[in-house]
Amino acid sequence: MRLADAHVECVTEIAAPPQRVWELVSDITTSARHSPELQEVQWLNGAERPEIGACFAGRNRNEGLGEWRTVSRITELSEHRAFAWAVVYEDNTAGEPLAVWTYTLEPLADGAATRLRHGMRLGSARGPLNDYVEKHPDREEEIIDGRIGLLRSGIESTLAGVKSEAESGVQG
Predict the structure, then answer these.
(1) Stretch 1-23: mean pLDDT, rounded?
(2) What is the largest CA-CA distance in the chain?
(3) Of 11, 37, 126, 136, which residue is most buried, by most CB within 10 angstroms?
(4) Domain of residue 151, CATH code
(5) Tens of pLDDT, residues 39-69
(6) Which pLDDT does position 127 carry in this prediction?
């Protein structure tokens, strides 16, 4: 995969209604409970819940990349249907995204179950991955495939956690 095309999306079916799944995916702490990379999140600038334009910080870590902080701005919020946020530069939260993350919910079985998609695509802002690929242009596909593979694994873990919580009725 090339840098310009970098994206990943995974899907699962959950034996719980969209309302229950929505409670979990629209809670920014849910992903941190299940992602191997996202360690913790917190609302910023007085925000206390998801709203278009609200921002939150995340602390991320993995063995290969170390530890880093992100700032995200909520870009889509359609109750029981879609939740999306853009990872942006902290000093320019209204700016172009480094990446865009999404959850999309689809009711199944007359509303008793939900198909949940979770994905990420690189945004238009230049970030560390762009710099790394420019230093190693002959390895672009290897670099992007490796990063997408890590993200896919993390997304699959997050979806498995959401599925487990939603089906068990346990709320974090």
Answers:
(1) 93
(2) 52
(3) 37
(4) 3.30.530.20
(5) 999 999 999 999 999 999 999 998 888 899 9
(6) 87
| C-beta separation of 156 from 31 below 8 A | no
3-state secondary structure of 33: helix
Contacts of 21 (CB under 8 A, 6+ apart): 14, 105, 114, 116, 162, 166
Cβ contacts of 22 within 8 Å, gap of 6 or more: 79, 80, 83, 105
Q: What's the whole-model pTM score?
A: 0.92
The reply to whether 134 falls in a domain is yes
Residues 6+ apart with CB under 8 A from 121: 6, 7, 8, 99, 100
Domain presence at residue 172: no
pLDDT in tens, 87-112: 998 887 878 999 999 999 999 989 99
- Residue 74, domain member (yes or no): yes
Comparison of pLDDT for 86 and 126, the residue scoring more: 86
Residue 68 tokens read as: 């880093």
| Best CA proximity match to 122, nearest among 145, 93, 91, 101 | 101
Per-residue pLDDT at 172 exceeds 50: no
Q: Residue 37: which domain range? A: 3-167
